[in-house]
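Let us work through a complete example step by step.
Step 1: write down the sequence.
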Amino acid sequence: MAGAQTNQRFKVLKSAEPTGTVIVMSFEDGREARYLQRRSQMRWSAMQMDLTETLCVSSQAAARCELTLPLVVADGLFIWTKHPEASRLGQEVMYLPGGGQPKQHLVEQQGVHFVSIEEQQRLGSRTLAGLKGRLSCDKFEWLTNVPNVPGRVLPTALSVASWSGETNTSTLETNVAENQAVNGGFDVQLSILNGNTYQIDNATYYTAFAGSPALVSQGPATLVTHDKQGELCQTTFNMSLGKTTQIINELREEIKNVTPVQGPFPIDILTRIEFSMKGIATNAESATFAGAFE
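Step 2: predict the structure and record it as tokens.
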């Protein structure tokens, strides 16, 4: 049967339609499969940030902040739309790696997407209203240089020169685990929402990797700002993802009962088609797997 073939070549085709994008796997032997997606409802997640050190003000009084971002959990699958065996039509495409290994889902499952400055910079005016992140603190002196006293007036807009997140991982040079900056943003622009909350509007530049959104850190988070003299200084926080992990787990359960939709998928921040097919990106013009599909 067709699934028994090995080293099967295919192309990942994206076609723009008025309402969005359709994604198809097209095989040289004429088979085709279309991408379907399940999404959870969007939830707001507040990540606690506790100040551990600041070089921006003389006072070392503890400050507690929260980084609040919307997040959504999504997963996807391909279903056969053209196949010589009628029984396979409408069924999920499975990957057979060979060597006695079991069948595998072709699409890596359940991606967690934070709506953060990546989307705000990439989409600009198309960013959905009301979905920008927020930074709230009980004390903002480290950021604004304004003493934490009754009647304080905070700046209406300011920027964080650098916001970086660290993860404990082995270095390439020494293979010794240590904290390393793995994501973040430069010139992160903030505008005030109320007396203790700033909205995260955008960033001039950001770095982010799969599983490591630009502002979310599994280790210390370091923010570089300006002191009263206008000199660069830094403040370090410990970030806690405990509540976020709980929300993600709840959403992972939620999407098990969601019916996959066929698209086309609107081009917005909650329907990004970002998935990995065993290491092959969806923008690959063609790919070959040393295995089979059925």
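Step 3: interpret the result. The first strand starts at residue 8 and ends at 17.
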